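Lab notebook, page 48
Experiment: co-folding of the full assembly
Goal: obtain a model of how the components sit together before planning crosslinking
Operator: M.T.
Materials (sequences as entered):
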Amino acid sequence: MMSLFEICQWLQNTEFGTSLRESIWMFPIVESTHVLGLSLSVGTLLWMDLRLTGKFMKSQPISKISNSVLPWTLVGFTIMTITGVLLFWCQAVKAYNSIFFKIKIALLFLAAVNAIVYHTTIYRKMDEWDKASPPPLQARFAGWASIALWIGIIIAGRNMAYNF
Amino acid sequence: MSLLFPFFKWCDGTWVGAAIRGSKYAFPVIEAIHLLGLTVLLGVMVVISLRLFGFILKHESTRELATDLRPYTWGSIVTMLVTGFLLFASEALKCYDSSSFRFKMACLILALIFQVTVYHRATTAMDVDKRPGFAKLTAILALALWFGVGLGGRAIGFL
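Observation: model returned without errors.
Model output:
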């Protein structure tokens, strides 16, 4: 039975992991795509979250913003997930040793819980509060929580590059 | 380019630049704020470009959407200019030799000029949604220029 550390070691030493890590162009391209993918994922999600908090585009029903923006957010998340997995693959040991990576994963988990709770509870009753101003407390909470968690995820992700 | 060298050297020697270089945490903190600004600014540009293309929020005019987003647009641009200058001051001499940095500054100047001229016109005009060619071209150019700035910025760390 391999330990988590050994799995990370094995992963980054696979032929694919090594060649990606040592490549002149592929690594920067994957890394840049990951960073610029933020604009599509978090940059679009932000407007949905701000609408949920009741601070933005109050005149528009939430369902319209949600239906317009979320498909693009999902495209962005797909890009982030693929490039994120590739980045982890080629430097898994560094990630294993990084406190910021652990914080990032914990916050990503909380963001996923937040999104799942929102979509399985109050989102299903949206007909009742679509045009409400301000939106119900639970919706506002989901919006603020999402904004705060994503700020944390971005800061933690960026700081993986430093050794304090 | 060598005409600008004294300016780069002066920036590198300012107390702000030296203080950021000397601190363990200043650069990462400023860099993180710079990146949050990037998320908001490119997020705005993506949403407005999608509207200019007619992909999203069709029931609302580009003008209304851009008006709602304007505080975030300029808030994030100012945030990025301020944090960007601080980061630059801490490693101005490195930037002087960086072709990525030159590319980024060229894109940035063009992006800012485009933002206050053509883009401003497109997002304040009453009839832009009836001129899809103009709207789409504006969206493509604005996205290309701002993503060029982002790409050039990331590349400073690599090339």
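Interpretation: The radius of gyration of chain A is 18 Å.
Next step: discuss with group before ordering constructs.
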